[in-house]
Amino acid sequence: MASGNGLASLGVEGATAAAQALSLPADAYGNDHQLEVMWAMKAYQHAEIYFNLISSVDPKFLKLTKVDDKIYSAFREAFADLNVEMLDPDLLKSNDAKEKWRPFCNEFDGLVEDFNYGTLLRLDCRKDYTEENTIFATRIQFFAVEIARNRESYNSAIYNAKKRSVETGQS
C-alpha cells in the first residue's frame, strides 16, 4: 500500500488529539468536517496496517478477532454464495443487501468491539487498496469478508506475490 502523509503528517500530538476526539460520543459533534477527515485517516491507517499484515504473514494463519470462528460460521450461513474474492458493491450497499446484512451485523454487537465503525474494504482481494478497489463498510463486514478470504485462501495471492518479490529482490 502506498504510504501517503496519513496520520504521520499529524505528528504524535495531532494523532493523540485525533484519538481522543474519536473516543467522544457521536452526538457531541453533529456534522463536523474535521471529524470526517479524522475517521477517514483512521480507516486508511487500519487498511494500511492490514494490507501490510497480509503481505507479510501467510493469511491462513491470521486471527483477526477473538471470535473469528463464530464470525466465519455465521457469515457463511447467512451469505453462503457471496463471492469474497471479487465483491459486488451492490451485495453490500443496496437496500436489499442492507436488510440482509443488518441482522448479521447486530449479532456481533457486544462481541466485537466497534462492530459498526466504518472501515475500508477491498473489492478485489488480489489488489491493493485504491480508490477504484475500495468501498466503505462496517467493521464487522470487514472482519466477515477478510476472515473468509483468509480461510478460503483468497488473500494468499497478496502474501505469495510479496514473498516472490522479496525472493527475487524486487521489494
Could you state the order of secondary-structure elements as H and E? Answer: HHHHHEEHH
Helical percent range?
40-55%
Distance between the termini: 12 Å
What would CATH call the homologous superfamily? yst0336 like domain
The tally of beta strands, per DSSP, is 2
Strand order of the largest sheet: 1-2
The CATH class designation is Mainly Alpha
Poorly predicted tracts of residues = 1-7
How many domains in all?
1
Query: Which structural class should the secondary elements be placed in?
Result: mainly alpha
Approximate strand percentage: 5-15%
What oligomeric state do the depicted chains represent?
A: single chain
Mean pLDDT: 84
Protein name: Polysaccharide biosynthesis domain-containing protein
Domain Polysaccharide biosynthesis: 35-159
List keywords for this structure.
single chain; 171 residues; two-stranded antiparallel sheet; 7 helices; PBDC1_metazoa/fungi
What does this structure look like?
This protein has 171 residues and is mainly alpha-helical. It has one domain (6-167): yst0336 like domain (yst0336 like fold, Orthogonal Bundle), CATH 1.10.3560. 51% of the residues lie in helices and 6% in strands. It has helices spanning 11-22, 33-56, 68-78, 90-93, 95-106, 139-151, 156-167; strands at 118-122, 134-138. α3 (68-78) packs across α6. Mean pLDDT is 84; it is low at 1-7. Residues 35-159 form the Polysaccharide biosynthesis domain.
Give a brief outline of the structure:
The protein has 171 residues and is mainly alpha-helical. Helices cover 51% and strands 6% of the residues. Pfam families: PBDC1 (PF04669).
